[in-house]
Write a structure and sequence with these properties.
By secondary structure, the chain is α/β, with parallel strands linked by helices. Helices cover about 40% and strands about 15% of the residues. The chain has a 6-stranded mixed sheet. The longest helix is centred in the first third of the chain and has 14 residues.
């Protein structure tokens, strides 16, 4: 039985309602940096394995707090980056409230092959990326920690539970599941298992501590 620990990145300026920025360069907010430091202090003695991180800045900055405390280096994993449903150029200058109707319309449409701009992913591509990651999970070192993103982990959980992602209704059902999944900034999930059989455990105690950070 292997153990992997997934950490969603700390609060970014986009999470705090800020204007759209290029997807890979969205930084942490001041609160996000405080969250990352708080979480690093509590995970440092509990995880001994390698550190894997998305190439997006908000995940890298969250991982850096952990790496600084533990003296480890983070390794960029090519499959950990977040799903980008809409090209940032199409929503440039919009804040969180202004982006929300566009995002809702995208998911309501349920088109796996829709590409909302040159720098956007299709949902079909996203599913393929997650499935590739699942196939490679047994090759990760035991006690690895992964710093990544919320929608990414939602689809990982969806696929590990055996749910389909083939037709518009599947895509809409996944979105309902993902929105309902407890995934605050700095959420921590432990995955234990092997092959495609994994048990997921949410570290609710850590989530409560993060929520208390002003």
């Amino acid at each position: 039985m292997a153990r992997l620990t997934f950490v969603r990145h700390a609060e970014s300026v986009a999470n705090a309602g800020g204007q759209t920025l290029p997807r890979a360069t969205i930084p942490l907010s001041a609160r996000g940096h405080t969250q990352a430091d708080w979480l690093a202090a509590r995970l440092a003695g509990a995880i001994a394995g390698p550190v894997h991180v998305s190439h997006f800045d908000r995940a890298r900055a969250t991982a850096q707090a952990f790496c600084t405390r533990t003296g480890r280096d983070a390794h960029v994993h090519p499959l950990l980056h977040e799903f980008s449903a809409i090209d940032p150029a199409r929503i440039a200058g919009l804040d969180g409230a202004q982006r929300r109707p566009l995002t809702q319309a995208y998911w309501a449409r349920g088109d796996r092959e829709a590409r909302m701009g040159d720098e956007a992913d299709t949902f079909a591509e996203f599913v393929a990326r997650i499935d590739t990651f699942i196939d490679a999970m047994p090759t990760l070192d035991d006690d690895s920690v992964l710093f990544g993103h919320g929608i990414w982990f939602g689809l990982l959980a969806w696929r590990l539970m055996g749910f389909a992602a083939d037709i518009p209704d599947d895509m809409r059902a996944f979105r309902r599941f993902q929105v309902a999944l407890p995934m605050p900034n700095c959420a921590v999930y432990e995955l234990t298992g092997s092959d495609r059989h994994w048990h997921l455990f949410h570290r609710a105690n850590l989530a409560r501590g993060i929520a208390a950070i002003a």
